[in-house]
Write a structure and sequence with these properties.
The protein is an alpha/beta fold. It has 12 helices and 16 strands. Helix content is about 35%, strand content about 25%.
Length: about 450
Amino acid sequence: MLFSAQKAFDHIRVMAKDIGIRAGGSPEEKQAAAYVERHFKACGLETSIEPFDVEIPGKAEAAVHVDGLGELQARPVCATASTPPRGIEGDLVFVESGEEVFLPRSKPGQIFLLYGELGAPDKYEPLMRSEPAAIILVENSRFIEPRLTKLSNEKRDAFGAVPTVRIRFEDGDKLMRKGCKRARVVAKVSHEWKKSQNVWGVLRGTEKPWEEIVVGGHYDSVWGGYGAQDNAAGAACAMELARVFSQRGSKRTIRFCTFGCEELGLRGSTAHVENLRKAHAKHVAKKRGKAWKMDWSPLERTRLMLNVDLQGLLFGDNYCPVGGPAELMSACKLLASEMGPAMRFDDECYSSDNTPFAHAGVPTAAFGRIGVELMWAHTPADTFDRCWKDSLAPIGHYLETFISRWVADPKSFPFKREIPEVHAKKVKEYFKGRVFGYVEG
C-alpha cells in the first residue's frame, strides 16, 4: 500500500492547526485552497481553481438573560435576524420540537423555546407564521457548547427570519425545571456575498481518459470552528490519494477535488454540478450527426463520485451510504469483507458533497466515521488534537484498493451510470427540505 496515514495527518495539521478556522469565503479558506493546489501541483496533476459566489455569515454575537437564572452561554444562528441593541424581552413559551402542532396562537412578544433545529421548510414556514419575537434553540446533545450554524438563505428569503440563538442542553434543562417565564435575547448577525473556490487536481487516464471519476472531500470549516475531523481529515485523505495515484497511474481519469463551503449548504459541490449541467445542456444542443453521443459531455464522462467526509475519530463505526447500481453496493461490501475495515452500508442520502452528484445522475459512495466524538462537530472543539492518525490508515488503504481495482486497472468500467429510483427520491427530498431549491431540475 502506498497510502500514508502520516502524510494525511500532516495535511490535517496544516489545515486545522496552522491555518485554523477555514470558514467558507474567508481569507483562511483561500489560504487552505492555495495549500491544496500546491500539493496537487507537486504531485504533477493538472490543477485548476473553480470559483463561485457564496453568501457567508458576518460578525455574529448573542446573549441570553433568563429571569431567575441569569446570563446563559449563547450563539446566534447566522443569517437569521438581529435584535435591537438592547435585545428583545418577552414571555418564554416552550414549543417542544417546533412542529406546527406545538405552536401557540400568535401573541406579540413571545420568545419560543425549541428543542432541536429550525428544520425543513414544511416545519420552518409554520414557525415563521406564528410570528415569535425570537427563538431560543436548545441543543440536542449534552456537554457541548452551542453549535455554530447558519440558516440557509433560501429559507430566509422565502419565509423570513427572526432573531434565533442556541443554548446548551444543560441550560435549557435547568431553565425548564426552574419554571423560568421570561427572557431577554440579544443577537447581532450579518451576511455578505464573497468568493469561494473548489480546488481540482486531475490525473489523466492513460487508456480511457473520457471515463472519469471524482474523489473529494470538503476543506472548509464552520464559522468559528477548526473543522479537524469535519473535514480537514476527509480532504487530507483525498490529497494523499492524489499523491498515491500520481505515482501508480490510472487507465481512467481521476479528478481529485477539495470542495469549498460545504458547511454553508454544499455550495462548492453544488456550484460544480451546476456548471456540469450547463455544459451538458450546451453539448446536447449541438448533436453532431449520428456519432454525436460518442463525444460525451463533462457530466456524462463523470461515472462515479467517491466522497470522504468525517474521519480521524479514535472511536467510531465506519459508514458508507451508496447511491448507485447494485453492483456498486456489492463491490463496496465485498471489499470491506475482504480487507476491512468493517463498515455499515445503506442507501440513505448522506448530507455531504456526494449528494449534488447523485442528484445529477452520477453514482456515489460516501465514506464517514461515525461515533460519540461527532458531538464536537460544528463546535470550536473539533480541533487537531482530537484526530487519531492510526484511524486514517484503514479507510485510506480501502479507498486505494477500491480505486485501483475498479477504476485504475480494469479493462471495462464495472458500474452502470445510474441512480436507483429509491435513492433518487431520497436525494430530491433532501434538497427540497435541507437546502430548499438547490439543484432542483
